[in-house]
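Task card 7
Instruction: Convert sequence to structure tokens.
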Amino acid sequence: MLSTGALRAHLLAVRLAGTVATTREKSLRSYRLFAARDPRVLIGINPEHQWGQTDLIRLMAEKCGVSDDPSVTSGLDVIDPERTLSGLHAFAERLADAVRRGAPVLLGTGHPHRLLGFYGALADALSAAGCEVLTPAMGERVDITTRFGLRTYNLDYVRRVALVREPGARSTGCGTGAHTHSPLPVRTVLDAAARRGGPLPELVIGDHGWVCGAGQLGCEAIGLGDTDDPALFVGQAEGRVSVVVPVDDAVRSDYYRPLTRYVLNRACLSQ
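Output:
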């Protein structure tokens, strides 16, 4: 079993935590856009309270460990590895609870190139432990507004993890999945499940719009969030997202394998 000390060292060595690749400039831009309620940064969360940029800096300092000094406007962000470990512990507890309840679960990612392996291993372990891993809305169309205009994608599943692909892309693994922050894919999946009489997920696991979109619709949602993803942490602060693990969400896919082993061991699940 991977020890907490060994995982902490891994987080720092591969920059999943500690000094990460996300820049302060990028994070501050996200905070400004969130404060202005730009849908591209809200990614499915409809905030109950007014969050100004200073409020968001304070929240992200508390939840992630970034600098709480508004005058710091450049450089690389920092994630406190202790906050990452605490988030992983809470994440594992929610997995264990889902298994105890035999809860149906849904997994989805907007980062298929990086995080498909992480979620796929969770899907395998949850299924082996008796949870139904849901795969509704396979092949359904999702129209997402991007910086290049309106783009059409299709919902697909790889290793029972939902993602979107461009039409005509072959299902050959994570390489043809698209990166997206949009909550529209999870809304489409949940709507399809409801139309067909369920079951509906009792736990949604993912990132970006998969977590925020599900949490806003009342599903229990847990996932990973980077320092430029304030919506997840606002969702957590306002009670619509159960757990957010602060971590760089765009490093090499194999760097997440120790996190997988760690949470599955803490949840008493096998891979």
